[in-house]
Each structure stands twice: as structure tokens, then as C-alpha cells.
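Batch manifest line 282
LIGAND: adenosine monophosphate
JOB: complex structure
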Amino acid sequence: MKVFHKINPLKDALNHHRSNSRKIGLVPTMGALHKGHASLINRSMNETDVTVCSLFVNPIQFNNTRDLDTYPRTLKKDIHFLEKLGCHILFNPSVQEMYPYPPVVEFGFGEMEKSMEGAFREGHFSGVALVVAKLFNLVKPHKAYFGQKDLQQFVIVEKMVKDMNIDLELICAPIIREESGLAVSSRNQRLSEAQKALAANLYKALQLGQQLLAENHDISSVKREVSNFLSQWQDICPEYFEIVNTCTLKTVDYMEDGKEVALCIAAYIGSVRLIDNVIFKK
Ligand code: AMP
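JOB STATUS: finished
ARTIFACT:
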């Protein structure tokens, strides 16, 4: 695997692949790689000729310095992990390389960023969109792979790609879970075993919500039941539980036949903030 820390050599290598008509796949990550990331990398390796994994903890998408400072950084292990998967290129720029001066461009996504992650993490999606747009411009991938785990992020990136006519195919890959149902996440490294067991109840809450929707309960009673379910555990501090339209991300007040919704949750377990979601269609 070739490792690039600088933009220009990365571009030269990719120009060479492009001139040989090789299809390029990009998997953007913030590192502390796990089997969720591996599923995206494996998919890219199956569907394209050259897979680029980017590893960059993007400071401008964090609005909480503690979260940024404590974000796990495990570069050596990550390189080994990617080599074992057979990934072709790792792009691991410094903050200085990505932002030689403070960026002035900001993105706004209107209603789409008013709820959930956008509501609780001000400026988050502007930071995500800027780094993703930069990566798309640098790598010029044919395909880019994202996880359903960050559903709001995927829908917003999809919108940006459409609005800006960026010429690539976006892929949204399913959430990889532990046996307990806990969505795999880099942040899980900061949980004790007991906390991990507790965190698995977030998925149980989503499953309960899904089951109640299937039984035709109305949205407000589903929200109430899910909230009651989670209130059994003092050490789970829910931040939000929303049921949203998967295209617009607007909260839905009632279920319509054939319309897809996502049940999305964010909660703190100790100081660790976790998110998860499931998609439901009636
Ligand atoms: P991150 O490093 O957390 O920014 O994640 C990089 C990419 O991996 C994002 O597109 C995530 O949605 C995706 N991802 C994270 N966790 C999982 C998971 N458990 N299953 C599938 N994809 C994931």
C-alpha cells in the first residue's frame, strides 16, 4: 500500500491510474479503523480498480474540543489494518496540508441540517461538506463509499453532489454491528465492556420503534414508548430520537404507505456520544 501525506504526490499517482483508465474508489474515514470501515473498503476493492482510503480527523467538523481531542488516533494499527485488507492507497494528510489557512467557504443545507446531528453539533455539516468536497476534488473518484451509520451525513453529501454536479457515484453501505446489535464505531473503543453491553440497548430501542411502527402505532406513541424503554437505564442519556423522511430528513408526523423513514438515535454513554439508525418502510 502506498501512503501519501502530501496532496501533490497523491494527485500524480492518481493521474497515472486515471490515464490507464483505472476506476478509482474513495473511502473517507477519520481512522481508528474497524470492521465497518473494512466493509466499505472491501466493497470499493470489489467494484473499482484502485481504492483510496483517506484518514483525516477533520477539526472543522467538531464543535466540541474535548470530542476532537479524545478522538482515537491509531495510525500505525490503521496502516496495518489497511495493508491486510489489500487497500491500494492511504491518504493521511496533516491539518496544515488540508487547511494551510483557515477556510472561508461555508456550506448551508437548510432544513436538512436543522434536526439531529445538525441541531446538536452546530457547523458540523458545513465542516463535513467542505472536507468531503476537498477530497472529491483531490482524488476525483469514480465511486465514493459512505456508511448508513451516518445517515444524515450521507443524505447531505448526496445533496451537495447533486447541487454541485460533481461527477461520481455515491454508495451508502449497510451498518455493521457487533453480535449484541451495537453499531460498530471508532468511539466504542472508549467504552468499558459494561458500557458496551449498555449501549447495545440503543439498537434494541430502534428495533422496538420499528416493531411499533409495523403494528401501526402512531409516531408520538412510538417516541414515548422508546423514551420509556431507554429510561430504564440511568447511564444512557439520550440526546434525540427522531423519525425522519430518508430523502428530506424532515421529521415525520404520521406514516404513509410506501414511504421510507429512518429511526435515528443519539445518546451519551458516560462521556461517549453514540449514534445509530434503522430504516423502516410500511
Ligand atoms: P468515520 O471514520 O467514523 O468518519 O466513518 C467513516 C465512514 O465509515 C463513514 O461513511 C461511516 O458512515 C462509515 N461507518 C462507520 N461505522 C460504520 C459501521 N458500523 N458500518 C458501516 N459503515 C460505517
